[in-house]
Every structure is written in C-alpha cells, then in structure tokens.
Design brief:
The structure is a homodimer of 193-residue chains. Chain A contains 8 helices and no strands. The N and C termini of chain A lie far apart (57 Å). The first copy, chain A, is mainly alpha-helical and 193 residues long. In chain A, α6 crosses α7. The first copy, chain A, binds a DNA duplex (30 and 30 nucleotides) through loops. Chains A, B: GO terms for molecular function: DNA-binding transcription factor activity; transcription cis-regulatory region binding.
DNA sequence: TCGATTTTTACGAACGTTCGTCAGTTATAT
DNA sequence: ATATAACTGACGAACGTTCGTAAAAATCGA
C-alpha cells in the first residue's frame, strides 16, 4: 500500500521538523513521487497529518495496554520497573512514540484543539488503568500510602522525566543514570515504611 | 530600544509556533513595522532567533542561580520544595522559560548543534550546583544515601516532570496534584530510613 | 549653538523560492 | 471499460532576503 509509505515518510518528517517545518515535497520525494500525487491518497496536509496522528495514538495505546495487561498483583517492583524499560525500548525503536510526544506538547496551533482531545483521551485511559493497579497493590500491602492517586501521579512523573531524557537523548549513559536514580528514589518512596 | 520590542515579539511567536512556524511578517506586525525593517536590527531570522535564545538562557541561568544561592545547609525540605514552586512560578510568568524549554527539546534542525551546546552548558552548571548541595545534606545526615548523584538526578527528574505538566498545562488542579504526589514520594524516598 | 555630515531606522518594491493546492492528462491495473 | 494512481503544469500566497531611498537621530566641527 502506497498510502502507508507516504504516512511513514510523513511521520519521519513531522517528527524531525514539526508540522510547519515538514513539506509535502520532501515527504513525496522520500517515497519517490511528486507532491501532487499525495493528493490521490489524502485530502491535503492536514488530512495526512491527522491520519498519522491517529495511527500513532493507536500504536501507543495498544502497546501500553498490552503491557499493562501483564501486570500481576504481587510484584509491583518488577512490573513497574519493567514498564519503564518498555517505554525506553518503545521510544528508541518506534518512530510513532516520538511523533506522539512532540505533537502532544507542541502541536500545530490550528490543530491544537483536535490534538489535545486525543492526548487527553489516551492519558485518562492510562491513568485509570495505572490507578486501579496501584490500588490493588496498596490493598495487598505491597506498597504504602492511602490513596492510589499519589503513587500513580508520581509514577507518571517518572515516566515523563524519562521520556524527556529520551527526547533530549543523545547520552545513553546519562539516561541510564537518571533512570536508576529516579527509580531508586521512587521505589523507596512508595515501598518503605 | 526597538530591538528589544522585536525580540519580545519574536520570543512570543517562536514559543507558540516554533522556529519554522513563526514568520518575520507576523513578528514585525506585532511591533508595528514591516518585516524589512527587522533587517536594520538583525542580520536575519537566524540572528534574531539566536539572540532571543541567548537572552533566554541568561535569564534562566541567573534566576535559578539566584535561588540556589539562598539554599541553606539545614533545611533541604523547604529549599527543594521551594525550588519546585519557583520553577512553576517562573514558567507561568516568564515567556523566556517556555521558549527555552521548547527549543531545548525540539530545536530547528539547522541550528540544533548550536542550541544543544547552550543547553548542555546550562544543564551541567545546574547539575553541579545541585549535586554539591545534596552532598552537603548527605554529610549533615539530613537525607539518606551515599552518592549525591542519585538524589540529584531524581530531583532533576521531578523538575522535568513538573515542567512537562506545565507545557501541557491547562489544568492547574492536575498540576498541583502531580506536584504534591511527586514531591511526597520523592521526599519519602530520600529522607526516610 | 548652529549647520553640516554621518549613522541609524523604516519603508516600498521587488527578488527568487518554496509552500499547499487544484485541474487536466496519461499510465496502470482490475 | 472503468477506476485508481501518478504525472505535468500552473495557481496564488507566503516565505526570507536584498535593494535603493527617505526620513530621523546622532555626531561633530566651527
């Protein structure tokens, strides 16, 4: 399918240059066609962008859902740390996550309402799943605290800080050091008495 | 000084639309002049951008340095939490910090080498200051742990996660909740036995 | 202090390029 | 033969930039 090739190239350029900085001419050249030919597959730049966005959202959602479903109820340390490693792994191998991250925080202004809606949607789903897991672990007395919201937000914060390091990311050593530090302190913070 | 007005407008548009999305025509209109007149003050778009970047860097550096200098050696809880609130305050009132953050993570490609250098410079300075403070607190047995690097990186992670929430930021409630959660867990993680 | 001179700032006009998009035509494949 | 896909050509608009020019401001010698 040629449409997918176009979306792949678009994903790449949108990720590197942003919406405004990516041109249809470059995207088309990457696929080996003229920019006008893109219009045989998409209504225009916005349409292409939104389809790429929705694909990225779906990938993000399903891959994380899949991992969350493997969470048990008796080993939060392993599950949570494994999730952080998954995020790193996904980010480094999956172009879609980088795209998703960039557009979450710096969307093209004229599409920001639509994007914000998608971002909020996926975020709420993730938070809900995580929160219920944390509640299970609290009930099982595997971690301390009364409200599940605290470790949930704190963990989401750790994920965010790792993602930021990945975006900035040219220093694998530093990434691993930050991961280790954040994880150590986080785990002490929710597990110790 | 008209140059400063131009830089102010440029800061605004670069922050909202990114380098590629910001046009000299819009920036000029904001100041009440034509785009050609900008060339009486700056060599071109890149020159304007880099001057704005360096101003932002200086503001960021001096404002944080100023706060760090007030850090004592006997109350890390107050100092660190106060710093987080300062970051939030600065971000919400100071356009330059938003600009700095956006360009740190998603710089225009053709200037990414220059920007990366500036970012790395400021980051190393911050890290060095923080690390020495943490070492003092460890020595004074006010926080636990052996190496200062662990709480330093963990704290920088908390700062990053707060910044990310600020960027995304339309939800003050959620911001405060995330701050509270991250701080609670972080402080438990470095202070409790 | 004054007029003369130089420098600074802003402007209209235009440059060459690139942008996204649309219309019409040709080639390919079902 | 009919639909799909890619092409050529062209469109208006916007981009950053350069030119020459005209005020305005600053500098300077008398």
């Amino acid at each position: 399918m040629k449409s997918n090739e176009i979306k792949e190239a678009a994903l790449k350029y949108f990720t590197i240059h942003g919406y405004e900085g990516a041109s249809l001419a470059q995207i088309a050249e990457e696929v080996g066609m003229k920019k006008q030919s893109i219009y045989a597959h998409f209504k225009g730049k916005d349409d292409l962008f939104l389809q790429v966005l929705r694909d990225a959202k779906e990938t993000e959602l399903s891959s994380k859902r899949q991992y969350f479903s493997k969470f048990g109820s008796k080993n939060p340390e392993k599950d949570l740390y494994g999730y952080l490693q998954l995020v790193i792994d996904l980010f480094q191998r999956n172009e879609q996550l980088k795209f998703w991250l960039r557009m979450s925080f710096f969307p093209p202004v004229h599409l920001e309402k639509v994007i914000e809606q998608e971002v909020r949607d996926i975020e709420e789903k993730m938070q809900a799943i995580l929160e219920s897991k944390f509640q299970d672990w609290i009930n099982a007395k595997l971690i301390v605290g009364d409200a599940a919201i605290t470790p949930t937000f704190a963990f989401l914060g750790v994920v965010d800080s790792i993602l930021l390091e990945l975006v900035y990311g040219n220093d694998e050593k530093r990434l691993q050091a930050k991961l280790a530090a954040s994880w150590t302190v986080f785990w002490r913070g929710i597990s110790h008495q």
